[in-house]
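Appendix B, Record 12. Input sequence as logged:
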Amino acid sequence: MSRLKVTLIDVGWGDSILLESEDSQGKFHFALVDSNDNSEMRSSYIFLRRHFEKMGLKIKKENMPFFRFVLLSHAHTDHGRGLESIMREFRTENFIYPKFHKPGILSKLQDFARRYPMYASHFQSVDTMDAIDLGDAVITFLWPKHGDPPMEDTENNNSVVMRLKLGEISFILTGDAEKEVWERIAQEIPDDTRFLKVPHHGSENGTFDGQNPVWLYDCPRSAKLGISSHVTPHPHPHQRVINLFNFHQMEFYRTDINYHLSFETDGQTVSVKYSH
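Logged structural output:
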């Protein structure tokens, strides 16, 4: 039986998300979205090493590359600073990133992929015209839009918004996309969505435009919500966002309380596992 699992790794600041897909033949396929690791804090790396060891997978050259793809959701250090070391350690078939970005960390990662193809065999930008397989799951993109100009107001709005679909179930990963993006794509959240990562760590500007929620009313009420909490330096989630979820009786989980969050589907049902 095929299955898809998305794990929001508790990194304390920023994002790191492990994607796992087991196909109908029992073969595993892995991908990683973002990593904020640095020399002093290697939360993503430690989690991945332990996770693969528990699965009996050895980090050896003959098992490389480990990842079908590594994706940078947008060019902020709390999302991409650790990706070079992750690609060096585990290697990836593809390094992918948003169509638009500001100079900085992504330019460094592109240069790394260009200079060391043994660590990242291919690299490319993505938009709504692209699709990627991960085992039996299919990944498409709700944002950025093909042919549209970049969003100049904030780098957060260049975030990749992904749809992962297996069978009758979709999972949505949102990066740090803010209200300006959701005003354009909220109606495209699919009706079969059963998990959605709350945008921008549960900050106000990822969920509200003034007094109005910008995506909640387009998200199916049966969807489970996951918050990759931002403990420092700007504490998220915002209490106003939490109050909104409580008022609408949405089922939500947060990494600062529940630790690592895993949302899993067999294409028909969804389960949640967490450490605390």
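The mean pLDDT is 94.
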